[in-house]
Amino acid sequence: MKPLGTQPPEMTTARQSTWRTLEEYAGDPEFLSRVQREYAVGAEWWLDEPSRRQFLKTMGASFALAGLTGCGIRQPEEKIVPYVETPENMVPGVSQFYATAMPHPGGAIGLLVQSHEGRPTKVEGNPDHPASLGATDVFAQASVLDLYDPHRSRVVQRNHRISDWPEFLAEMTPRLEIHRQQQGAGLSLLTGEILSPTLQSQLKQLLTTLPQARWYQFEPAASANASEAAALAFGDPLYPLYHLADADILFSIGNDFLSDGASHVRLEREYAGRRKVEADGQANLNRLYVAETTPTLTGSKADHWLRLPPAEVAAILVAVAQKLGVDTSGISGTNPESVSAQSAWIDAVAADLKAAGSRALVMVGPHQPTALHVLGYAINQSLGSIGKTISFHSPLGNIEGIEAGTITELVAEIDAGKVETLVILGGDPVFSAPADLDFANHLSPEKVPVAIHYGLHHDSTAARCEWHLPATHYLEEWSDTQSDDGTQSIIQPLIRPMYQGRSTHEILNILLGEATKTGYDSVRGYWQQKFGADDYVKWHSALHEGVLSTNKSPPRNVAFREASLKQLPPLSAASEKEEGDYTLIFRVDPCLYDGRFSTNGWLQELPQPFSKLTWGNAAWLSPATAAELGISTRDVVEITRGKTSVEIPVWVQPGMPDKVVTLSFGHGRQIPDVTPVGVNVNVLRQSTHPWQTTARVKPTGKRVVLPATQHHHNLHGRDLLRHGTIQEVRDNPHAPAFAQSHHHGGESHVDHDHDHDHDAGPGDKNSRVPGSDQPTFYPDMKEVGPQWGLTINLSACTGCNACVVACQSENNIPVVGPDQVSRGREMHWLRIDSYFVGDDQAPDVYHQPVMCMHCEHAPCEPVCPVGATTHSDQGLNEMTYNRCIGTRYCSNNCPYKVRRFNFLDYHTEEKLLPVLQLHENPNVSVRSRGVMEKCTYCVQRINSVRIRSKMEDREIRDGEVVTACQSACAAQAISFGNIADPNSAVSRDKEHPLNYGMLAELNTRPRTTYHAAVKNPNPALVSKKEHA
Amino acid sequence: MSESTPSPVPHELQGHPPSHTIAHAQTQHEIRSVTDKISSIVLKKGTHLGWFIGFGIGFALTLVLMLSVTWLLIKGIGIWGVNIPVAWGFAIVNFVWWIGIGHAGTLISAVLLLFRQEWRTSINRFAEAMTLFAVACAGIFPLIHLGRPQYFYWLFPYPSTMGVWPQFRSPLVWDCFAVSTYATVSLLFWYIGLIPDLATLRDRAHNWYARVIYGFLAMGWRGSSRHWKRYTDAYLLLAGLATPLVVSVHTIVSFDFAVAQVPGWHATIFPPYFVAGAIYSGFAMVLTIAIPLRYAYGLKSFLTDWHFDNMAKVMLASGLVVAYGYLVEHFIAFYSAHTYEEYMMTNRMFGPYAFFYWMLILCNVTIPQLLWFKKIRLNPYTLFIISIIINIGMWLERFVIVVTSLHRDFLPSSWDMYIPTFWDWSTYIGTIGLFVALLFVFIRVLPMISIFEMRELVHHEGGEE
């Protein structure tokens, strides 16, 4: 057999100073072995003449492997504990759920992950986990796709060449030995926030044994302002947790608590729990006031919503504080005059807060200046809400006795030449670090002799480091983590590492000189020590439950120091100077977060809140500002700050304050072989004031295509999305006027319909299926067995998109890419429509999830020439994909436009990349080109419950079938069940006076209905508005 | 004009002063010269360069069609501009347009035959050919517009072993029957009409191949009186069969829209308005073809100004029915007091596709009013231009109906635009090429004017004299 690679490839690296001759190359055994490793094992067979025996052997092996279809053998070797059933009971075709947790900055979310024969396919929330309560968010839902990301880094790389762990260890062991002899001097670690107790203990061990080693932390989306303010106000850098269940009056200053931050799933649940209107009109609603700059989903749920430039937002808080008697003399730089137009608003907020007392809550956004946080704490203190609706806790990421430096300090240290070896544990700081640090150039070999990047992608940071080590995804590693309230969870893997990745624990073990110790040993060892005698039982239960119930960070007793109000830091950083007359606001991207999800197709194609933009970011401008610049949506502007310019398309967003530009970072991340999507705006961020700055904006005259999924946000007076106030409900609790149809058609049944509303009682079909009393030529559908129906409460829905990703994940919905989205061909079965009500300046925004209505008289059914869409006895409008020939007539005739068509072969990528097939749900057909598809009410879930109930010889229980959207919904806005059973939750919801059927006047008899959105405005402000 | 009176031609003649440009075809010909003139176009040796140029253009565009369809079959209909909500685009627009064009042929050959409008004789043969070719072009679209065209036959009630059947409530199934029946009857009608002329060509051909081929197609026609008896019976029966098709086909095509509940589609006026539109566009297309043909082959003695005048009058009349249809659509949108209907009309007039709507009104309603003037009707240049404008207008009408209704229907959140792609255009233009190429082949190999019917006319005239 000929050895491979007798030709000398470019073996010299930047660090190898001496040249060797070709002869030396050829004879050097080290070189030869290195070359051998460059090719896959067995590659050399193919260079020889294949013998018959060899050929048959290979063929046989290939067939055998093909039969294994990848993942049957990928279950982790260590004992992991399923949530419902034990592995011995594993039945092929029956999925299992395992409890684990997804780490995320600020706090992890507890999950139950569905596994099909060792293949994690779908993420659900863990009802026992306090940060999940059974629900999830977009990131958790989409994280399963990251596991199968074809762009993940698979092997160790050294200077862009394939290497392996033994080579890395061979290089690093002597190097680490030198560091060890110098007590760690020259060794630096850059990490994100570390919430894993095991990792914290490992790090502590490392930094205690090597006291000269340095640890730096950088989290691009995190802000220390809240804890800095706590340090001022309470003398301790604590972080706040909110408790909304008992909060009657909520006042948010730029705090997007419903969709951002580690607690948002829990807060969404608590918030929505206080927005329920009972069938008799009784309600104990909270009232939410929001003053913010960039419109957020939280703002859209507000009862009173102000969108103002940052200085005015600060002035609003100052004014409210003054009204409440809080000393604001320490605040400088706000102009009370600027908000004089809002005096009624300020009065109303102050009065409401005062009246609610300890049942009120002021929430200042994490990115707001520290001074405002102190002021917010002061108001909460004066209201007595501290300890009731807000509690303070010790930071979770701190390691006792060890101080973490910032990335700015790291850069200074590098400049001082003190960093010999830099280990970057996760993150992509070259992309995300503030521009003024010039982090990329600090990674050059001249400045840092050996830089090691550890991460999921060979990204722009990896490209600048000598070594790149592949990381494991959280679904393939042993670890542990903490949620926002300190609840600890064990992360158990659902699959063995797909590539050569190692977990962070294993990297730390290498640094600790225990390279052979596995991540499992580290995690298990840590908890063994913690659990002590009960170890086995506790470990087992921790894996089973997904939660370590005993460990929670207790609220700290705090005493507000009035003096802190006198020593407030300035609102804007001292170093900040005017760079232009536009205020730039940076926000964490609602879909890609800080960029870590930028290779995730589900999140890239997820319509961003309000704009419904996919695949990229745009600079949000107000309509007036855009008009002033003479530009409109899709025009490209140049944003200049200092010497840095960025060209970015504009999105004209109604409700944006004038002269403010909002940019979301996380887009435009460079990863080899991936076309960067969007614009990297991190280059405009400054380390001293990363959330807000000033800049110049000028049009460039260029125009680009922006792929958005919704182009019209005006209801045109149509009663598709009905909304009203709690006062209107109280005036007429049995039939609030706003929840009734306006009757576009002017048909004669109008009065008849109204009569009906009054005597609607239990068992009345018309109340459960709107319009079922209308005359029709068609016979009623045959109804056998449970009749499925769904209700969405628009008061609860925050438009957070979790259901959209859940649906995509559950139903194998393809990602179609920006070009297809811009042609109007996105495939989401479930979409969230946003409608703007009111003027361009400050519209109210309502969200309406829309999926197939499963009409009893479905307009799509009679027009299909081949009968591919038909009605089931259980009231489902079903698609028979095999029968569909793709006339698309059904979509034309669907008034809700919920049908989606495979215009092209959208599953090509999956076919080409087998790894992408692994995430598919085996219970849902993958649709071919030319076939129509749509929401099925998760018929595969209905069927699995039906089969189970039949085996147990019983009826399906209410609440037993949970659709993917329903289970993901943190606000519990969706109820699903059998409407033939008058006692089911969904039947009760459908008999609610707020229940209405969208376009029911078309005689479609929709099985999906809505509860009209109810707001709880302050009567004082409503009457003011009416007078104006 | 006395289109409905079954009076023989000479009476017609008496109605017009002889000095007038309107002259009868048959006045200038004897029976022999009719045969000579028409058959010589087919049988003469060598082909005119102009024919090669015309056919070459048509054939080149046909190749574009083939390329477009091939690419479509490889990639899927995503190469077009269709999307959700506008799931039907050019394919359906073109289908309805071509089917409509076909109608004039059937109307001329069948209905006018039954009404004994002998002036039809000069135009019926190529009008029927035009029908066939238009139906051929139309038939391509419903097939290739399917997401999975390989399963088109599922639309037919064939005895499937799976026991599945088409869904008969769907207008697309009705369409399938209507169009296939129409194509079959049109083909039969045209072919049977050709048999005596094929025999003439067989007898006159000098070339052995031509004799064999025409002889084969003439099916042993010898011109015996028994043949003639059978022939006239069959022809009349087929005319009777074809007549309801003139009304039924476009009525059913209109059901594709009227049965749906999309505002702008769901209207009871659609069947008569579509039939009128079909006749309108069909006559426009006959004129578009006849006028250049007359010049190219010197057929002024057969295709006289008087024929053009008659056709222009039919266009004017059917155009007014179409205009009435537009008016009723507006009225119903207003009278229904239905938000969605009202918005649909407003959007047609002032929405993003308003240009197309106003162009449609200009092409189909405003400009054709010039046909009230006899001067315009008798001037082949103006008539040719107007006929082309009407063809464009009728295409725009279908575009407006299909696209503007769909692009903004009930839920504003779903509203989107339909922008045709290169492949939309290439497929459309390709079918025009196919149509042109087929016409040129027809002109070259078959008598474009019915020889025997022309002879009959001359004979009648002679008999009267």
Please describe the structure with a list of short key phrases separated by commas or semicolons:
heterodimer; A: 1028 residues; alpha/beta; Rossmann fold; Dimethylsulfoxide Reductase, domain 2; 5 domains; eight-stranded mixed beta sheet; six-stranded mixed beta sheet; 34 helices; 37 strands; B: 465 residues; mainly alpha; Formate dehydrogenase/DMSO reductase fold; 16 helices; disordered N terminus
Describe the structure.
The complex is a heterodimer of chains A (1028) and B (465). Chain A is globular, with a radius of gyration of 30 Å. The relative contact order of chain A is 0.11. Chain A has 34 helices and 37 strands. Chain A is 28% helix and 17% strand. Chain A folds into five domains: 1-68, no CATH class; 157-221 and 399-545, Rossmann fold, CATH 3.40.50; 239-393, Dimethylsulfoxide Reductase, domain 2; 582-703, Barwin-like endoglucanases; 723-734 and 767-960 and 971-1015, Alpha-Beta Plaits. In chain A, the strands form eleven sheets. Chain A has an eight-stranded mixed sheet with strand order 5-4-17-16-15-6-7-14. In chain A, strands 21-23-22-25-20-24 form a six-stranded mixed sheet. Chain A has a four-stranded parallel sheet with strand order 11-10-9-12. The longest helix of chain A has 17 residues, at 52-68. With 1028 residues, chain A is of the alpha/beta class. With 465 residues, chain B is mainly α. Chain B has one domain (21-147, 167-464): Formate dehydrogenase/DMSO reductase fold, CATH 1.20.1630. Helices cover 71% and strands 0% of the residues of chain B. Chain B contains 16 helices and no strands. The longest helix of chain B is centred in the middle third of the chain and has 34 residues, at 171-204. Mean pLDDT of chain B is 86; it is low at 1-26. The interface between A and B is large, with 57 and 55 residues.
